[in-house]
Amino acid sequence: MAPQPVVVTGVGVICAAGRDTTEFWTSLMGGRSGIDEATTGPFAEFDARFAGRVPDEWFMAAARAGLPGIDRTAALAVAAAREAYEGAGLDRARPEPDRVGLVLGKCQGTPTADGGYQQIHKTADVVAEQLGSRGPRVLLSTACAAGGNCIGLARDKLLTGEADVVLAGGVDPLQFGTYAGFAGLRALSTEPCRPYSASTGLNLGEGAAFLVVERLDHARERGATILAEVAGYGLSADAYHATAPDPTGRGGTSAVRRALADAGLGPDDVDYVCGHGTGTPANDAMERKVMRNVFGDRASSVPTSGIKSFLGHTLGAAGAIEGVASVLAIMHQTAPPTIGFDDDATDSPTADSSLDFVPNTARSMPIDTVVSTNYAFGGNNVAVVLRAPDENRPGAELPEREVVITGLGPVTGAGVGIGDFSAVVAGDTTGPDSGVTPQPDLAGRAFAPRTMWRQANSLSRLAIAASRLAWEDAALALRRNELENVGVMYATESGSRESVGDYDDSVLANPNSPAIHSFSNVVLNATGGAVCQALGFRGPTTTVCGGEASATLAMECGIETIRAGKAEVVFVVAADEVDDGTGITGASAIVLESADHARDRGATPYARIIASRHVGEGVGSTAAEEFGRTVAGADLTGLDAVYGDGAELVPGMESVTTAGVTGRCGSVTAALDVVIAAERISREGAGTTVVHAHAPGSVRGTVVLGRP
């Protein structure tokens, strides 16, 4: 089949600027902001009280009609997803559920009645169930970059052939704890924000947005209306600071350049930039640097606007909402304005009269190519390229590049480093109930610069240590400039329970004096950002949260990144703390590398990747049927072993898992199964090996390994 462009056929949005796409676009064109002052209720407690709130009557009744017990976060997501789904005509087309995927971005955990939190991927499961998606399902949590990241990953899932249609979006509600954290950082404005001009801070908001993306041939076959093309995307890491952007704009510049390269375009092809535009001086100043770095002398003639002054900063939903705005800008050939822009704010550190921020009034103009950008806590950056549809334009092609495993870095109570850990597992002389300590012993060595190591929380220390050990095991000797292209795919089931607990306690004690250091580690991508900062990695990076399948999902992202030629080396890092009374913590890092790169530097791989696939669980299907979908099309000739939870699904196979030695540790369990499977292939010459991971009620997936 000829390479097919990936196109947008439906959009949906709900935010303070509108309950649907029509209201949203009308607000943008009319300059009507949905931000107002909270004079009553919990947010009135703070000095900065302006926010973009969504009235419950816009969406809760409809959501509860379909699912009576639905929470507010999921209800927002379902409202936007349903609009996109129906707008694309999928309610009439009724696509095969196994071929419909879902990629959702989300920053915050959803509180439960008992004071805890849902598993973060639960929201994706609710949306998938409501709309009948049983294809690939991924929850990304890269803070403010999550929504844009999801649009790009959805494109990947279509290019690999895993799905025919993917719903890509983001969601986040306003939550008191998050609001207190931003207030504690002094990042909130005491008036409506004014991106790129006189603003002293941001306004938080809430909402959700989705885009329906599909292959052009599939859209044509069902007679869909094509709204735009997702031409490319780029990810990068700042490797600079937990909350502050790199003031040089290096990370953001890299993301935009990667996105343009992915789309086969250059800076001169860009007509309009939908900017991040939070309104904080540090972020807005950094974006100006990115514009000048990317566009050079042309920067002043590229219209750039920020729409957060319409609806607030919606965190994990921001990139998706701005993606919808970009599609609408292409459809209507009009750039939304930056409202609240002060032309006279020449003394502001974010003001720059030489750049065109489309001040206060929408602008009719030819728009063929849009770049939408987001820059997040943890140093995650994303840029997405959207184009006007052109059915004669050739599509992207995913190269067939072999991927191998060249480094392993387990960090557990059963052993630190591949030598110690594999010896314990091979001997099976200990177990979680017979002497193995629940926490790894990292005493006697700092795995990062001293100041950073001292300030890091326990989860970040585990992940950094695992990554450093994997680096050493792979015998990597990369120059500083080569680190710009090393990727990190971070997997976690629940993030840092230590930091979340400390922060929540501080907010309960005094919301006007929260534990700011803990707040910076509450976002789930913080640990991945710490790994990048400690080791200097600035390549493509994301954070995957799929319960106990998180690590194999992250491996799949890493494999696709290398096969697409976006990196030669990717670290897949899993880390979790278990809150079940055992006190078990752990981490594991796996170095993925293109076979060509490994060969050129003389590396000896542990194993090669044969296949990887994940599917969403569905009502009425059996475990065996779902397992079969995960290995469909994979070459299982000479199957030797099944690691993880799937051995009982393969006749004659004995179950093998590291959990019997270490205890279960969230995302880390599957990562350790990959570690031992790869080590066994290298040491014993074992044959084809399947590692199976299962997040009950959510995702089931496999990674298939073979001899190099």
TrEMBL record:
Question: Which residues belong to any copy of the Ketosynthase family 3 (KS3) domain?
Answer: 3-388
Q: Is Lipid biosynthesis one of the keywords UniProt gives this record?
A: yes
Recorded hits in CDD domains, A to Z, give:
KAS_I_II (cd00834)
Protein's GO biological process: fatty acid biosynthetic process
PROSITE patterns referenced in this protein's UniProt entry, alphabetically: KS3_2
Q: Which keywords annotate this record?
A: Fatty acid biosynthesis, Fatty acid metabolism, Lipid biosynthesis, Lipid metabolism, Transferase
**Keyword Membrane recorded:** no
Name the pathway: Lipid metabolism; mycolic acid biosynthesis
Gene Ontology CC terms, in alphabetical order: cytosol
Annotated signal peptide:
none
Q: Which domain of life is it from?
A: Bacteria
| GO MF | 3-oxoacyl-[acyl-carrier-protein] synthase activity
Its family remark reads:
Belongs to the thiolase-like superfamily. Beta-ketoacyl-ACP synthases family.
Q: What is this protein called?
A: 3-oxoacyl-ACP synthase
Source species: Dietzia psychralcaliphila
